[in-house]
C-alpha cells in the first residue's frame, strides 16, 4: 500500500474522530468543528497534492460551494422533524431527502447556467 494513501487515510480518520468526539461534549465546540469544511479541505488538499493544478482546485472549490448551499436544507428539516416528535430514523430520512432535493436543484441550475453560458 503506498505511503501517500496511508498518510491520507490516517489524517482523514483522525479529523473525523476528533470532530465526532467533540460533538459529544456540551457547548458549541462540537458544532463548530462539525461545521468546518474538513472534508472539502481534505479533498481539495489531496487534489492539489495529486495534480499540482490550482485551477482544478479552484473549479472544484466553487462546485463544492454551490452544493453546500443546496445541502443546507438537511439541517432545518432534521431539526424541525425531531422537534415535532417524529421517530429519529424517519427524521434522518426526511432530512436526507431534503438535502438530496436541494442538491439536485443545485445540479440542475448549474447544468442549465453552464450550458447557457
Distance between the termini: 44 Å
Total number of helices: 6
Main sheet overview? none
- Uncertain residue ranges: none
Number of strands: 0
What string gives the helices and strands in order? HHHHHH
Helix content: over 70%
Q: What is the radius of gyration computed over CA atoms, rounded to a whole number of angstroms?
A: 17 Å
Mean pLDDT: 89
Beta-strand fraction estimate: under 5%
Helix-and-strand structural type: mainly alpha
Shape annotation: flat
Q: What is the secondary structure topology, with strand pairs?
A:
Blueprint: H1 3-23, H2 29-35, H3 38-51, H4 54-71, H5 74-83, H6 88-116
What does it look like?
Helix 1 (3-23) runs antiparallel to helix 3 (38-51) and helix 5 packs antiparallel against helix 6 (88-116). The termini are far apart. The protein is flat. The protein has 117 residues and is mainly α. It contains six helices and no strands. The model has no long low-confidence stretch (mean pLDDT 89).
In brief:
The protein has 117 residues and is mainly alpha-helical. Helix content is 85%, strand content 0%.
Keywords for this structure?
single chain, 117 residues, mainly alpha
Amino acid at each position: 500500500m503506498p505511503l501517500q494513501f496511508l498518510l491520507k487515510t490516517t489524517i482523514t480518520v483522525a479529523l473525523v474522530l476528533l470532530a465526532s468526539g467533540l460533538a459529544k461534549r456540551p457547548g458549541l465546540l462540537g458544532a463548530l468543528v462539525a461545521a468546518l469544511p474538513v472534508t472539502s479541505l481534505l479533498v481539495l488538499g489531496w487534489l492539489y497534492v495529486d495534480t499540482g493544478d490550482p485551477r482544478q482546485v479552484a473549479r472544484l472549490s466553487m462546485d463544492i460551494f454551490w452544493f453546500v448551499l443546496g445541502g443546507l436544507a438537511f439541517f432545518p428539516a432534521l431539526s424541525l422533524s425531531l422537534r415535532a416528535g417524529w421517530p429519529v430514523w424517519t427524521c434522518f430520512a426526511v432530512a436526507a431527502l431534503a438535502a438530496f432535493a436541494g442538491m439536485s436543484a443545485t445540479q440542475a441550475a448549474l447544468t442549465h447556467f453552464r450550458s447557457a453560458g
